[in-house]
Amino acid sequence: MSGYAAFDAWWWPYVFIAVAGWLATDIWRWLGVLIGNRLKQDSALLTWVRAVATALLAAVIAKLILYPTGELNNVPMALRLLAVSVGFAAFLLSGKRIWIGIAVALGLLIGGQLLLG
């Protein structure tokens, strides 16, 4: 037997995941640091990178709200949409303080589940 299955220790999958995850992400981080230091803040490439990163984050958040898995799937869609909307409004009204938006949205989700449950 060779390859991944050749190791029969209980800890081997964890080491494999840690090393593979580190290699897969750290290379890109270091390349980003090296290339990013040479770019101007208002360059077209950096603007594009920010736009792509923002779009990816928005897509992940939308997926979590509209097509959740796990325990969030038990929360009604209306409550999830209300929590994200009110949380975003609290974020804007508080001078763009992220923790306030998160706290308000989380409070609505927990409070709504306690009232509905």
UniProtKB/TrEMBL annotation:
Keywords: Membrane, Transmembrane, Transmembrane helix. Pfam families: AzlD. It comes from the Bacteria. The chain crosses the membrane at residues 12-31, 43-65, 77-93, 98-116. InterPro entries: Brnchd-chn_aa_trnsp_AzlD. This is AzlD domain-containing protein. It comes from Hoeflea ulvae.
